[in-house]
Amino acid sequence: NDSFEKKGKARRILIDFIAYLKLANDFYSKNISLKRAFENVLLKERPWLYTTLAMACYGNSDEKRDLSEFYAKLGCNKNMINTVLRFGKLAYAVKNITVLKNFTKRIIK
């Protein structure tokens, strides 16, 4: 993981998507239900909201676009992803303020 840190946190996130989607296409393309189940593993490992917030804080515009495309391939709402990417920098400030952090957690659940 240290070698990935040099290229940034955002790149590390994208590597997971690249690998999972490649494996899904290479090994499970003929069995749609198995492919979808495999893709759901990625969605559990990389929940859209938290991952998108992280990308909003650490990613550049190309990385954000790539993440949005990956989630769209997985069936997530692209407009929602792009909205979080646009306003996600606010999350970076919120995470350091305990009252707002707790309030945000309640809204999300």
Describe what is shown at a glance.
This protein has 109 residues and is mostly helical.
What would your notes on this structure say?
The chain is mostly helical. The chain has one domain (2-108). Helix content is 82%, strand content 0%. The chain contains eight helices and no strands. The longest helix is centred in the N-terminal third of the chain and has 20 residues, at 9-28. The radius of gyration is 15 Å and the shape is elongated. The mean pLDDT is 85.
* Structural class by SSE content: mainly alpha
Average pLDDT, rounded to a whole number, is 85
Query: What is the helix fraction of residues, given as a range?
Result: over 70%
Spans of 5+ residues with little confidence (pLDDT < 50)? Answer: none
Largest sheet: none
> How are helices and strands ordered from N to C?
HHHHHHHH
Please tally the helical runs, counting DSSP H or I stretches of 4 or more residues. 8
Q: State the total count of DSSP E strands.
A: 0
Our count of domains comes out at 1
- The CA-CA distance between the termini, in Å, is 30 Å
Give the C-alpha Rg.
Answer: 15 Å
Give the overall shape, derived from the CA principal axes.
elongated
Strand content: under 5%
